[in-house]
Amino acid sequence: MKLFHFSEPIEFEDLIPGTHNRWGNDALLFRVNKGTGKLTAKYGNDKNGDTYGFLLLDHKPLINSYGEELYCPTCAKILSIGLGRENVDKSLIDTIKYSQELANDIADAFENVKPMLPILENGYYLLTRIEMIPTDGDGHFFWNLSASKKRYRASADVYYKFHVSSGTPKFLLPSQNIHCLNEERVNHYLDEINDGKTMTGLAFYYEGFMSTLLDGHIEQLQLISKIKVSIV
Hints:
This protein has helices spanning 90-97, 106-113, 183-194, 217-231, and strands at 10-16, 27-32, 39-45, 51-57, 60-66, 77-81, 123-128, 150-152, 158-160, 163-165, 171-173, 202-207, 210-215. By secondary structure, the protein is α+β, with helices and mostly antiparallel strands. It has a 5-stranded antiparallel beta sheet, with no helix packed on it. The chain has a 3-stranded antiparallel beta sheet with strand order 1-2-7, covered by helices on one side. Strands 11-13-12 form a 3-stranded mixed beta sheet. β12 and β13 form a beta hairpin. The longest helix is centred in the last third of the chain and has 15 residues, at 217-231. The relative contact order is 0.16.
């Protein structure tokens, strides 16, 4: 009799201590077996031979990349904002939004984000917590990314004396335009922060030292607001 093994859509593989991974925090390795690929990176050439790359969510480009530098890990990339998360199916965004409640450890966090993980392509991934800086690596507010092409140094790994050092995610790219900002919601979150609530975000590692923020734009804005207030 032949036995069939039916894999789970999302499978836990291992817990990796921060001392054994380059991001410095405890991480959880998991495998996606039945992913829809709704969140994925695609690369190619147009009819003129120009190179393009896209970070896609539900077939809508969140981040656009340009040029041969896309295939060079130590080259800064030319980026621009895509159509934005606001053009994606709302039910998909809700899945992301409600999957990131703050938990006590990374295993609990994994259980919380499981509902949104099938949007990834099949393969192995790491889930970890990192304290991000809400800027683009050049000292500008992370929501500064526009439809105009611009080179971002933080999108590249470090090359020094014939050695390559892979980047640790510290800076952010937005997945929606600044005009989507809801000031009423900002004030609501500011009140919650003042009451001691910890705000989180959910980001997808892009390249170099940058990640794309899938959800938590307002929380990151409030973090900047708090820093400005404390300085004053």
